[in-house]
TrEMBL record:
<keyword id="KW-0413">Isomerase</keyword>
<keyword id="KW-0057">Aromatic amino acid biosynthesis</keyword>
<keyword id="KW-0822">Tryptophan biosynthesis</keyword>
<dbReference type="InterPro" id="IPR013785">
    <property type="entry name" value="Aldolase_TIM"/>
</dbReference>
<feature type="domain" description="N-(5'phosphoribosyl) anthranilate isomerase (PRAI)">
    <location>
        <begin position="4"/>
        <end position="201"/>
    </location>
</feature>
<comment type="similarity">
    <text>Belongs to the TrpF family.</text>
</comment>
<protein>
    <recommendedName>
        <fullName>N-(5'-phosphoribosyl)anthranilate isomerase</fullName>
        <ecNumber>5.3.1.24</ecNumber>
    </recommendedName>
</protein>
<comment type="pathway">
    <text>Amino-acid biosynthesis; L-tryptophan biosynthesis; L-tryptophan from chorismate: step 3/5.</text>
</comment>
<dbReference type="InterPro" id="IPR011060">
    <property type="entry name" value="RibuloseP-bd_barrel"/>
</dbReference>
<dbReference type="InterPro" id="IPR044643">
    <property type="entry name" value="TrpF_fam"/>
</dbReference>
<keyword id="KW-0028">Amino-acid biosynthesis</keyword>
<dbReference type="InterPro" id="IPR001240">
    <property type="entry name" value="PRAI_dom"/>
</dbReference>
<dbReference type="Pfam" id="PF00697">
    <property type="entry name" value="PRAI"/>
</dbReference>
Length: 216
């Protein structure tokens, strides 16, 4: 079954709806400029609830260095971190081995992968970590121009970038990912989740995902 990650959850009520619908991963955003930003205190409370419901909280980091990522992960009891921004991806090489990574790989408008820091990338473990293929402007709802020829398929991977209830099944059919990641595609307005869209998106993703033995 295709795994679903709902990113930018800010309330227990929305987390409960997502988990009950079948989402396995819940993204907690630590980017201060994002409308989905959570304080460490609020994220710790939400993370505890997510774990109690049997799902996986994921800390989403952008400009944060390794020391900050480790500090927040410890405060929020996070075992999985999403390295979304350039600085946080560079921090990968200094993170402890017990933290699972979801490492963002950006595709440009031509379907080419943006420059990857090889030293940081080589620290990934394909048995532990995941890739997430996205556009160069993540979190905006812009559709990612993914190119299957450029995908690093040795890793389990998520896809993101402009996913919504209208295109999710076609995207899963085309890329057959381990998981899908959505934020703006399940929002009524930017930063505010629609519980109806969360339910519809998760149902559609998993209904088609059952048809595949994906790359997991």
């Amino acid at each position: 079954m295709t795994q679903v990650k709902i990113c930018g959850i800010k309330t227990i009520k929305d987390a409960k709806v997502a988990i009950d619908a079948g989402a396995r991963y819940i993204g907690l955003n630590f980017e201060e400029k994002s409308p989905r930003y959570l304080t460490v205190q609020d994220a710790a409370h939400l993370s505890a609830f997510i774990v109690s419901e049997g799902a996986i909280p994921v800390g989403v980091f952008t400009h944060h260095d390794a020391e900050k990522i480790i500090s927040i992960a410890k405060a929020c009891s996070l075992n999985t971190v999403q390295l979304h921004g350039e600085n946080s991806r560079l921090a990968n090489k200094n993170l402890p081995s017990d933290l699972k990574r979801i490492y963002i790989v950006e595709f440009d408008e031509l379907g080419n992968i943006n420059n990857i820091d090889q030293e940081s990338f080589k620290k990934l473990d394909k048995e532990r970590d995941y890739l997430l293929f996205d556009s160069t402007t993540p979190g905006t709802g812009q559709e990612a121009k993914l190119n299957k020829k450029n995908m690093l398929s040795d890793f389990r991977y998520f896809i993101a970038g402009g996913l919504n209830i209208d295109n999710i099944q076609a995207k899963i059919h085309e890329y057959q990912p381990y998981g899908v990641d959505v934020a703006s595609g399940v929002e009524s307005i930017r930063g505010i989740k629609s519980q109806t869209l969360i339910k519809q998106f998760t149902y559609l993703a998993q209904a088609l995902g059952e048809c595949y033995v994906a790359n997991n």
